[in-house]
Amino acid sequence: MIENKHYFISASLALMFSFDVFSNEPKVCFFIKENYQGDSLCTTQGNAVELLPTDWNDRISSISVPHGMSVTVFNNADFSGESLTFKENIESLFSPKWSNLNNSISSFKVRVAACFYESDNFEGESICLSGNEKIDLFRLSNLSYDQHYVLNPLNDRVDSIKVPEDIQVTVYKDNDFSGDYFVLADDFYYDELEKIGMNYAITSIKVSQQEYFICDQHCVVKGTYNIPLGHAFGDYWLDDRVKYKDVLVSFRLSGEDNYTINLIDGSLIKVIGRVVMLIHRNHQENTFMFELSERSDTISFLLRFNGGYSEAQFIESVGTEAVYISPLVGSLFDFGLINENLIVNSFSNEKLLIINKVVLTVEKDDVRSGRSVLGIAACWAVPMINIYNYIIQGRCNQVDRFVSNVKDFFSGHNDKILQVSGTARPLPRKNVEDIIAAETALENININNNTSTDVEGRLTHITVDMHGGSLTVPATALACSVPMKEQLLPQLRRSRDLTPRCVEWTLNILTDFTLLFGDSIATWNAENFGRVIERILKMGDTGYAVVNSEPERRLVDNVREHLAANADNMIHMKTAFNFSQLSYADYLHHQTPEEVVHSPIIAQELPLGRYELALENFHFIETVPRIRHEGRWVEEPDLHFEIEVISGITVETQAARGVVLPVINEWRQIYHQINHPELAGASGKFVHTSATANSTAIEAGLLVSDVAQSWLRTSHDDYIYVVVRLRGQVISITMALDINEFDTGIAGSLTNPQYVLHPEGEGAVRGAGTAAIRALADHLSKKANALWYLMLSVSHQLSSKRKWALSLSTNFEL
């Protein structure tokens, strides 16, 4: 208790107790006498006094507290000593219940509150509500509903709202906290309430107070809005038992929106009108643009965090019907920080941004490890199926996998999903009669019409940032049989965690060789790769005068440590380099004459796209050959491509491979002669190149012919070859790889050099590549354990158009 001391009232204290400044705002008032008599001091929400003035210290006998407000009083200065919190009037502190505080109050805090005004600009009659308080303006709690008693003249008359920091206000159109509602976290003026249809419409109100507030549903964004992901996920964010942290942020789509979402990986999502742009700050040249449907009313962003790898995609919908599902855009980020935020910035002055719902979930494992979990390929095509179910209704619903108890989540099966934030629940399954229509619509969206005979894949994944390893990271994943997206990328920036151990040294050797020799395929090729490795093992150096000695030192150290006297590792390393060559050849294959062709070292920085062709319900049709005749391409329905699929264990495929190998050897020699004319003398042949020949296609043929020769000589059980002949002559060979139980990847395709060097020449043939893919898709779809997807990857400066389609004749990833 403070007595017999003299203090002066500061300017701020005087202002706090001024009746003029806050004349229209409810106040907590302190009286010297009981029953609110005598001198008084009044103050508004959010104010606190750590030591009352001498004239008031230890002299308060009654307190008036407006409805919805709260004050805590202390019997010592500095908010210490015994305390009590009051939410209603106290007419006498002489009461035995409060007697220990009568004439004993030395400091107080008035809890922060939101205030509601009948006029614009926070003027006129008002009420204030502290956190966790609510009010129904339509009736008093002790009166019957039938009386329709209006508690306060503010019913349907609120024109402005003042919302302090860390306070959230939920305003409802109807009584009993029902009807349309919105959550507000900023001050709102009349015109802003009008934009969301809440001017002269608010009937009941709830107020909450959360420092780390995460929107649940129907939140209005003004300016900047933070979603504290790290705090919301809490211990799950860094828990090694939790593999996936998934986020759904769903917005109303007005067509006049203008906002951005800053992601934690350095990416930026920008929405302007009906255009969505995905931008990575470190690779702004790779901006992906999507045009939205005019009929869509909702856009939902799905985010996944797995270790140090994140993915984002969006779904536009009409109600609960999906209209378009974007590719997943993946990127690396610095994992380990717990204060990660999503930041939403709204720039529109015409339309206020509305967040429909925010949901956070965690999973322990990838449910796609078994086909029975998801059942159909259409569901498999939605990677974040758990949070997808909160916005799209259909057969893919996974409601049975959700648990609400943490103990059940960690002790149960790995396919369980735990919702850690948000009150929204997964949508129920559709009625049986609606399932077929919904499933067909989803399949058409995700897999480009499942019953189509097309061999065009849909772009499903884009990896923007691979730590400068767009060629070498996928090659390492394939060589080490490690899932790239699920295992390698999440650990890539924490190399100490890479498993199996072959991943680290394989990636290091490939990366450093590319740094040293990736300026040109004249040095970045299989022949020079083998020569450099051999030189290192014998002499301890690369044999080149290199500018950057550090990559050379690392390359020498890794080669000598892991490849010396280890034939298996040597074969493994050559296989890995083959895969990186195929990736680069694939990049070359898809460049147009107008585009700048980058060297392998630059291609390492390009985004990686994955295209997929669903095999479920694939229908095979024969491809009609097209022949160049008198300057025109003519279909020849009387001619038929003869297709041979070579697949199985190496012993069984040896004879068939032996028949094709001499042809590939000859093609390889021709491709090499183009780049090294001096070799023509040894063969007695001279190769003429047409002026219309594509130089990048020739370079791609050079690389793929090296790999095709190597594969045919030393094949593996999971390699597949599709040989296409016309009139007995080999036209092309397509190579593929069984990646896992559900996926096969296209490794590369090699065409008879005659049709590459003279693409417009008389008698040139087209259609062999399409015929090969159709035959491969048909072959795979008929297997006993039918695969679901034919996959490929393209290291490429991807188009910024909304949708992509690409003939499946290129490379792949795990």
Automatic annotation (TrEMBL):
PROSITE patterns in alphabetical order: CRYSTALLIN_BETA_GAMMA
Keywords of the record: Repeat
Keyword Repeat: yes
Domain Beta/gamma crystallin 'Greek key' as annotated: residue spans: 69-112, 167-209
SMART domains found in the cross-reference section: XTALbg
Superkingdom of the organism of origin: Bacteria
Signal sequence residues: none
Pfam families in the cross-refs: Exotox-A_bind, Inhibitor_I36
Family the entry assigns: Belongs to the beta/gamma-crystallin family.
Stated name of the protein: Putative exported protein
Species whose genome carries this gene: Yersinia enterocolitica subsp. palearctica serotype O:3 (strain DSM 13030 / CIP 106945 / Y11)
Organism lineage string: Bacteria, Pseudomonadati, Pseudomonadota, Gammaproteobacteria, Enterobacterales
